[in-house]
Amino acid sequence: MVLAIQVADCLPIFLIAPNVSAIGLVHAGWRGTVAGIAGEAVRKLKEDFGVDPGSLSCFIGPSIHTCCYTVGREVMDKFQTDHLTENGPNRYNLDLISANSAQLSEAGVAAEKITVDKRCTHCSESGLHSYRRHGDRAGRNVCFLNLKWV
Ligand SMILES: [Zn+2]
Questions:
Q1: How far is the CA of 94 from the centre of ligand 1 (A)?
Q2: Which CATH number applies to 2-65+96-146?
Q3: Domain residue extents for the chain
Q4: Which chain residues have CB less than 5 Å from ligand 1, an ion?
Q5: pLDDT tens digits for range 44-77
Q6: Which of 13, 96, 127, 138 has the least CB density, counted as fewest CB within 10 Å?
Q7: How far is the CA of 7 from the centre of ligand 1 (A)?
Q8: pLDDT for 78-128, tens place per residue?
Q9: C-alpha–C-alpha distance, residues 78 and 40, integer Å
Q10: Residue 29 CA, ligand 1 centroid: distance in Å
Q11: Terminal CA-to-CA distance of the chain, rounded, Å?
């Protein structure tokens, strides 16, 4: 079984439960993050497949990092201050990676099992697609996660 999502700045979050052959692949933008999608995915894996959250390995793929993710007050107001850095009057940089990592940890994932890709889709020279850089012309980064039954 193969899961696939498309992202361009949003976070692709890969969840792998090696002991019970279960996987999850989450597309987390700021709205999904506010809705708690990463923690919800962990809870779903636990309920539906009996996954122990402590056994999960998580990988947050290339996404927009806090260096380039400036948001206005309407978005900033929805996040805890520990995920925000002030960047001028009524402007803040949002760290979606820390917000989603916190959700994964709260859901029981061990911090040392959360790996983050260092590339920012907006400012790295790696050829990744970025909605904020390319606007409506932006392509999408396609993410696959394959489950092999063992
Ligand atoms: Zn950046």
A1: 11
A2: 3.60.140.10
A3: 2-65+96-146
A4: 65, 67-68, 120, 122-123
A5: 999 999 999 999 999 999 999 999 999 998 999 9
A6: 127
A7: 16
A8: 999 999 999 988 899 999 999 999 999 999 999 999 999 999 999 998 899
A9: 18
A10: 16
A11: 13
